[in-house]
């Protein structure tokens, strides 16, 4: 936290799968002492109940669950970290929610600037999230095509940099 500012923080980590967002989100949550809410873990827990939903309904449930958890934290005067691939409209919604309380709001976009390494990261990982599935490179390419690049202010970190350096950049960004 910067100076004497004690407002809660809403810290959003976004980016394509395999860019290090979950790792950084978890590390940042530990460092600032707030819970981390990961979209994949939430959706894995309720996936059987959502099997019949259309994709747009499924995505609405994901956003609604994350929003409810963060709102609850803010009502308690506490912050939260969110780990989710988000669109520009979802970013705007998160920012509005934080402003209502008021809370400090941060957006961190994780990227991987080397496509070969990025693909290797996806194809070689096993996250083991109960009820969830591993995603392949085809999913990453589909998400890249479907989601326009973010245009809002944010910190961008590259998975090609050492994780410790990226965490340091994130914590500096939060403290500024």
Protein model, in words:
This protein has 176 residues and is α/β, with parallel strands linked by helices. It has a single domain (9-175), classed as 3-Layer(aba) Sandwich (Rossmann fold). 49% of the residues lie in helices and 14% in strands. It is built from 7 helices and 5 strands. It has helices spanning 21-32, 39-46, 55-75, 88-100, 115-123, 137-146, 163-175; strands at residues 9-14, 36-38, 80-83, 104-111, 155-158. Strands 2-3-1-4-5 form a 5-stranded parallel sheet, sandwiched between helices. Helix 1 packs across helix 7 and helix 3 (55-75) packs parallel to helix 4. The longest helix has 21 residues, at 55-75. The mean pLDDT is 89.
Helicity range of the residues?
40-55%
> What's the domain count?
1
Major sheet: order of its strands? 2-3-1-4-5
Sheet of most strands: 5 strands, parallel
Q: Which value, in Å, is the CA radius of gyration?
A: 16 Å
CATH architecture: 3-Layer(aba) Sandwich
CATH class: Alpha Beta
What would you call the shape?
globular
Number of strands: 5
By CATH, the superfamily comes out as P-loop containing nucleotide triphosphate hydrolases
CATH fold label? Rossmann fold
SSE layout and pairing:
Blueprint: E1 9-14, H1 21-32, E2 36-38, H2 39-46, H3 55-75, E3 80-83, H4 88-100, E4 104-111, H5 115-123, H6 137-146, E5 155-158, H7 163-175
Parallel strand pairs: 1-3, 1-4, 2-3, 4-5
Helix pairs in contact: 1-7, 3-4
């Amino acid at each position: 936290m910067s100076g004497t500012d004690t407002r809660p923080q809403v810290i959003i980590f976004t980016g394509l799968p395999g860019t290090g967002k979950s790792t950084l989100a978890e590390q940042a949550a530990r460092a600032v002492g707030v819970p981390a809410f990961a979209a994949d873990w939430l959706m894995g827990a309720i996936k059987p109940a959502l099997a019949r939903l259309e994709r747009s309904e499924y995505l609405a449930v994901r956003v609604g669950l994350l929003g409810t958890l963060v709102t609850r934290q803010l009502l308690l005067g506490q912050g939260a970290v969110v780990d989710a691939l988000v669109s520009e409209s979802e970013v705007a919604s998160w920012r509005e929610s934080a402003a209502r309380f008021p809370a400090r709001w941060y957006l961190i976009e994780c990227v991987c600037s080397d496509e070969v390494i990025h693909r290797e990261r996806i194809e070689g990982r096993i996250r083991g999230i109960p009820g969830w599935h591993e995603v392949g490179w085809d999913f990453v390419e589909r998400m890249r095509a479907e989601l326009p690049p973010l245009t809002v202010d944010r910190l961008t970190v590259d998975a090609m940099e050492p994780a410790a350096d990226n965490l340091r950049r994130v914590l500096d960004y939060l403290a500024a």
